[in-house]
Amino acid sequence: MAKSLLTRMPPGLRLFPSIRRNRSRAKAYKVSVLLLTFLAYALLHASRKPPSVVKNVLSSSDSLNYPIIPSNNSTALEWPLSIMFQKRVEPFVSKSSISVSSGWAPFNGSSGTALLGDVDVAFLISYSIGMYFAGHLGDRLELRWFLSGGMVGSGLIVCLFGLAYWWNVHWLGYFFIVQIMGGFLQSTGWPSVVTVIGNWFGKSKRGLIMGVWNSHTSIGNIWGTLMASSVLTYGWGWSFLVPGCALVAGGIMMFLFLVVDPRIVGLASPYDTTLSYQESDGDDEESGLLQPGIKDNKVPLISKDVKSDQEHEEEPETAVGFLEAWSIPRVAPFAFCLFFAKLVAYTFLYWLPYYIKHTEINGEYLSDSTAGNLSTVFDIGGTLGGILAGYISDKLNARAIVAASFTYLALPALLMYRMYGSETFWLNALLLFLAGVCVNGPYALITTAVAADLGTHESLKGSSKALATVTAIIDGTGSIGAAIGPLLTGYISKTGWNSVFIMLILSAVFSGLLITGLVVEEVKELYSRWGLKIPSYKELS
């Protein structure tokens, strides 16, 4: 066991020998794990944004041919916002003068938006299927190799999609094959990073820590949108090539530096029951990094008993089976809740720039790049939503109540954005921000803190070998919803965007209803904890 741990030491750590001898190394390693896993998943999410950014270019007949002219009316944006947000003035063009040879075949015909939706779904379905297998493998394989290999492979696949621009590829099957391969490879990311975080951090302040950490999703969406939009005018292929190369570089960095388990560097797991302690300089639980059981300003190291067990090659923990993981309390309700939550979130992820571009805002249409840049406001709101949901759920110790509350708040937010988002640019941005807070709050909470809680549930008797499997079950089920949402939008949007928003609102309702039972349980626990009595039916009547 000890020998296998040494072989898992990241080679890049040899460049920083002082860290391994530092008395505060526990905190240093935890900070590095947070930053590296944050970067890893931000890059993975950034690589998913190019399809939504170039959707207008691929399907529109003249999407890049309209001149970008500053508006002369009072709503024109001032510097520096005018650099990022520009308005597109469309000259009068008769329908007979528009050639279907514009755009990019096979997406430039009358069924172009539906085909683009199908390509998105090919990625998401393969991603959701791959997630179940990735979780099973993640609890059994070396996570550093698993994560870095998936990132490098995913980056190359993203580049392959963009290379179709220079290779002049117009075969629909090529885009389907590339997206299916990309979905399977990207499925290695989420179970890996959540398992790594779970290996390093116990339950204390997990909601807040993971809420902040999970902002990588929104930050990645913003990075991806800005990267893809900034090079779009040079050709849509660059919008894939730049994020793809960045993802490959990130994968190499994970291989060189990511420590996936504290025991690799001689520190104790937060799930170890036998610990010895060494004095440290301020690495206490109140720093927000150390875990329950760390007391009197001490950092746990692997105890002598644990070390001696390792020397005798102690048998590793047995990984939890797929069906056994489904039977863990609360896994199924949260998994199906996430199904509908991700349906809403991913519909915005893949279709929001397209929706903004084809919606008049104060009587004007925005350019392709501006529509993509404005869509990042949703992700900025999502960052705050994830942090708030995590913080509040830590304070209340009630994950289901917080998830359901944010979900129900999303209902008026979605309705108001559809009704009033076209009034002015700033009102659109404000309502989009609020929608991002409410939609991404429960999505972020369930995929991080809830999944980590359930992956180390008390029924597992201290085993941490269910983290990747449980995470994959929850996020994999959610990813099926993420595939269905964009698919339905591609067809429903033909009848009008009101139909799409009705679908999103109904999905949010179902998402909240599916965890109603858990909400009732937590309300009873809160009443009991606060010394309150739940009134009976007779008392109420």
From TrEMBL:
It is found in: Membrane. It is a multi-pass membrane protein. Residues 51-524 form the Major facilitator superfamily (MFS) profile domain. One of its GO terms (cellular component) is membrane. Keywords: Membrane, Sugar transport, Transmembrane, Transmembrane helix, Transport. Coiled coil: none annotated. The keyword Nucleus does not apply. One of its GO terms (molecular function) is transmembrane transporter activity. Pfam families: MFS_1. Its main location: membrane. One of its GO terms (biological process) is phosphate ion homeostasis. The chain crosses the membrane at residues 114-133, 145-167, 173-201, 213-234, 240-260, 331-352, 372-393, 400-420, 426-454, 466-488, 500-520. Belongs to the major facilitator superfamily. Organophosphate:Pi antiporter (OPA) (TC 2.A.1.4) family. This is Major facilitator superfamily (MFS) profile domain-containing protein. The lineage of its organism: Eukaryota, Viridiplantae, Streptophyta, Embryophyta, Tracheophyta.
